[in-house]
Amino acid sequence: MMDWNPWHGCRKISEGCLNCTVFGRNERYRGDGTRVETTKDFHLPVMRRKNMVFKLVSLDNPIYVCLTSDFFIEDADKWRDYAWNIFRYRKDLQFRIITKRVERIEQCLPKNWGPGYMNVTLVCSCENQKRTDERVPILLDLPFQRKEILHEPMLESIEIERYLESGEIAAVTCGGEYGKDVRICKYDWILHTREQCLKHNVEFRFKQTGSKFIKNKRMYRIERNLQESQAQKANIDFVPEKEDDGTTPFDSPLLQCSKSPYRSSLRLSQEEIAYYEKRGFDGIRREAFDIIRANIAPAYIKNDGRQTPDSGHPIYVSQHATASCCRKCIQKHHQIPSGRKMTETEVNYIVDLNMEWLKRYFFHGGNGFKRIKEPY
């Protein structure tokens, strides 16, 4: 798990905070766990190494924000705008904010928030029924692209079905309490939450058992390093199957590129068409990987903006047509930052984008932007 803690320090506000290990650690090492102050990692997401690669790279894992505090604590109001700007700048990262202070969120959102940043998930922490009924109704009305519920530590059986019915909750995670003098977590509570999620086709995850775990009326004392693996062995996580609505991840970027007179005017030459037919789809795709990895993926490209020829290969043409011909265009149109090496996921995206344009080009006789509704 990767995290970014721009500030430390918190104050306990509800039952779930009673045995907070993070608060205890702050108190032990800093003297006062309630003192909120910035950390040495305040600028971490925008810091670069000597080769100009970002120090914080996701490798497709989400970044958990403010695990040593609460992102919406009042003391951090003076720093939060900077954090919002970082979320906007690092669109290649997925940020997850876990909070108990949902009542403060609306007044803390930036002016350009709109319906929410695509790369920010809000996770509302609710330890019992009382806090769930206080916080989740507020969560439902907040403008976030993805909202989740976290029952950790889970202190009792919790009814959330009426909230899941809204369709606003994307996932629910459950877990017990760990540390000294902890409270119990019952497997029956976990299963009941899972049943509610299954009924409404909502993603469910059993994160960890906690230190005191009751199953089949027997209490188990589980070491911290085994709590997650024991939860995984239960094998009760649920990920709903996504309905196929006929859209692809490339519809929006290709539509935007089609509005450019230059990009929409690009066509393959007879030689490029003959080469495509000779090499076939799979052969062109393999060559696309070679081209993108050599000319686009590196962190530093000496001639960025001029490294992709206008013609000579079907991929060169599709790169210009899809605004994936240089890192400057890719940052502008596909929100993949320049100045660092592309991840394999990003390379795959650029290759698949180009291959999608070529598919559409041949299907529609020279129009690589038109959607293909029929199966290929």
What does this entry look like structurally?
The protein has 376 residues and is α/β, with parallel strands linked by helices. It folds into two domains: 233 residues; 113 residues, no CATH class. The chain contains 13 helices and twelve strands. A seven-stranded parallel sheet has the order 1-4-5-6-7-8-10. Strand 5, helix 3 and strand 6 form a beta-alpha-beta unit. Helix 10 runs antiparallel to helix 13 and helix 11 packs across helix 13. The protein is elongated and about 75 Å long. The protein starts with a strand and ends in a 13-residue tail after the last helix. The model has no long low-confidence stretch (mean pLDDT 91).
Helices and strands in order, then pairings?
Elements lengths: L1 E3 L2 E2 L12 H10 L6 E2 L24 E3 L11 H13 L5 E5 L5 H4 L11 E6 L3 H13 L4 E6 L9 H4 L4 E7 L9 E2 H13 L3 E6 L3 E4 L2 E4 L5 H8 L16 H8 L2 H4 L5 H26 L18 H8 L5 H8 L9 H20 L13
Report the sheet-strand fraction: 5-15%
Distance between the termini: 39 Å
Structural class: alpha/beta
Portion in helices:
25-40%
Number of domains: 2
Using only C-alpha atoms, the radius of gyration works out to 24 Å
The SSE string, one letter per element, is EEHEEHEHEHEHEEHEEEHHHHHHH
| Unreliable sequence segments | none
Number-wise, the strands total 12
- Summarize the biggest pleated sheet: 7 strands, parallel
Total of DSSP H or I helical runs spanning 4+ residues: 13
User: Averaging pLDDT over every residue, what do you get?
Assistant: 91
Per the principal axes of the C-alpha atoms, what is the gross shape?
A: elongated
Order of strands side by side in the largest beta sheet? 1-4-5-6-7-8-10
